[in-house]
Amino acid sequence: MRVSGLEYLALATKLLQRARLADAEAGVWEAADLQWWWRTPRRSDVVDQVFWLDEEGPVAGIVLTDWGGAWGCDPIAVPAISAVSLPTVWARAVEVAAALQPEAVEVLVRDDDSELLGLVAHSGFVAGDEQSGITWMNADRRPEVAALPEGFVLVDRAQEETRPHPMRRRSGEEVEARLRQCTLYEPALDLAVEAADGDVAGYALFWFDPVTEVGLVEPMRVEDAYQRRGLARALLTAGLDRLAKRGARRLKVGYGTDAARALYVGAGFRVTSTSRSHSRR
User: Fold this and answer.
1) Is the pTM of the predicted complex or chain greater than 0.90?
2) Which of 241, 234, 269, 232 is nearest to 254 (CA)?
3) What is the pLDDT of residues 125-179, one digit of tens each?
4) Inter-residue contact 235 to 191 (CB < 8 Å)
5) How do residues 63-113 score in pLDDT, each as one tens digit?
6) Predicted pLDDT at 161
């Protein structure tokens, strides 16, 4: 099946939910990751994405995402369920991506995924130097909620929905409308920290998937002027607590910098895998 727009988002969500139910820690992405990517309009919104389905829904797919200078390409197959092999999905992915004639194509591959590493290398993709990682935590092992420094308050979009969304400066004016199109978005899990003058000091979005019972942190940011005041830990611990109370059994967050890794590991997350971006111009 080839679909685009919100129909694509629905199939991609179901595909990644099935993948997570089939394996507790396989792969790179959660369904909520792709819903987060939906926050801003992209050329890939109108591109037909390819899925393979059985009688219960999608078992494999190719997710192509326009990131500006390069297009992301994510081949996905449900472990132990999909009758479509990863080499078949990858071969189709290369074909479909090439038809778009992008400046470059990038694939994020786990360092322990020998099959996909072999496929991308055979297709001429080259690994980058930067390494990212994935961390997990059981919800019942979450840290206590840290107090905010004096003069700061925690708010969520269920309370502040009439004010401009704090992510609009980086994600565009449509960010809130696009997020509300996503089935996993919950305003009460969309958090921000405000200073006494109402300035947004930081924000974090927490996603609960009721199908997989996984809680995801994506994104999380403290503005430069408010760094090193304990705001990141306060935001993180408050959001994890809300996820657990919402029903999440397992919590996940990815990192791309040493500082982010230190924050999450310091809160009790454990690193389970690392990845690199492989690209071909």
Assistant:
1) yes
2) 269
3) 999 999 999 999 999 999 999 999 999 999 999 988 788 999 999 999 999 999 9
4) yes
5) 999 999 899 999 999 999 999 999 999 999 999 999 999 999 999 999 999
6) 78
Residue type, 49: Q
Please, are residues 97 and 71 in contact by the beta-carbon 8 Å criterion?
yes
Give Cα separations from 280 to 44, 95, 102, 118, 122 (angstroms): 18, 13, 10, 14, 11
Q: DSSP assignment of the chain, as one string?
A: -EE-HHHHHHHHHHHHHHHHHH-SS-SS--HHHHHHHTTS--GGGGSPEEEEEETTEEEEEEEEEE-SSSEEEEEEE-TTT-SS-HHHHHHHHHHHHHHT--S-EEEEEETT-HHHHHHHHHTT-EEEEEEEEEEEEEGGGPPPPPPPPTT-EEEETTTSTTSPPTTHHHH-TTHHHHHTTSTT--GGGEEEEE-TTS-EEEEEEEEEETTTTEEEEEEEEE-GGGTTSSHHHHHHHHHHHHHHHHT-SEEEEEESSHHHHHHHHHTT-EEEEEEEEEEE-
Whether 100 contacts 47, CB under 8 Å: yes
Provide the token pair at 275. Answer: 């990845």
Question: What whole-number distance in Å separates Cα of residue 263 and Cα of residue 133?
Answer: 13
CA–CA dist 260, 118 (Å, integer): 29
